Amino acid sequence: MSSSSSRPDPAERPPAGSESTPAQIRRWRKYLADEIAEANLYEDLARRKEGEERQILLGLAAAERRHQQHWRHLLGDHAQRLPSPSAHRVLLGWMARIFGSVFVLALAQRAEGDSPYARDDDATRGMAADEQVHEEVIRALAARGREKLSGGFRAAVFGANDGLVSNFALIMGMGGTGVGATVVLLSGIAGLLAGALSMAAGEFISVRSQRELLDATRPTQATLRAAPDLDLDHNELVLVYRARGLSKEDAEHRALERMGIFECNCRPEKSHDPEAATDDYEAVGSAWTAAGSSFCFFAVGALIPVLPYLFGAEGWTAVIISTALVGLALTATGAVVGLLSGASPLTRGLRQLSIGLGAAAITYILGSLLGVAVA
Known about the structure:
Layout: H1 22-47, H2 51-75, H3 87-98, H4 101-113, H5 125-176, H6 181-217, H7 222-226, H8 237-243, H9 248-258, H10 274-284, H11 287-303, H12 307-310, H13 315-341, H14 345-374
Helix pairs in contact: 1-2, 1-3, 2-5, 3-4, 4-5, 5-6, 5-11, 5-13, 5-14, 6-10, 6-11, 8-9, 13-14
Membrane topology: Multi-pass membrane protein
InterPro entries: Ccc1_fam, Ferritin-like_SF, Ferritin_CCC1_N
Subcellular location: Endomembrane system
């Protein structure tokens, strides 16, 4: 955002006329169309929410309407029959009406962060500042949904990509040895089943172990139950609170609170909070959900490179079709991760594609060398 005090205030200009260039008018009309689309987006999302989150989304919509008035003032009579908003805003509005808010908010976060107002002297400094703050508001709202998705989503993305890359690499490696299409197909099916079961078991054990570690380190309510029977002169409660990070003086004060000598609850953050435990478990996810997601998505991902062989393709035809299908799938999964993380979908998609194809190319070369050596 430009902080120059010499930047003119566009709100002081008269409506568009002879002093405005056609390029400016086209740009303002596009800005206005986008502001209308964004206000409608936030209002659509707000209708699905309640309480504080609803009020926040309505506040964002109100801010976008203020921005609309700025461009309407500059456009004057040119504010009629506006062009379609940018494709990104159209996609956001469509997703808001059909899908959940997590994907939409992730996309909206990126849109707010890419606002051109900080680089455009026709927008006020206040509008540019608004857009920067809006990005942080959307980031905070999206974080709630991302935390709920993180456990199962991590397992699903990891499973799908592992299935795509590992089975594609396996098929390319077997194909490089020069074996027949039937052997390649059977190898791919075996890799699918073995990998999916291994992923599911690994995710189940991983998530269950993480939850057990949380249980083991979570403070309990033992201090409340034991407090009435403790000796005031030799109070182990002080040791409990010192172990939780309190100073000696604070620990002694906390122990007296627990024994009922003091009535205040001065350091509640050192007590067991059931709601905090629930939040931690939401971030970790369910072991069964993680295992099921890993199994299903690994199987789907591993099936894609096998499809040409299932339908009877052989040789280079099967390799080319399999590579194309896997390339599309890798790009799509990378793009989804990019969307949810607020990053560029294209960048994430190309990263996934390069990693997957690189692994397959290496195994194909190794398979070719192995085939020559065996021959």
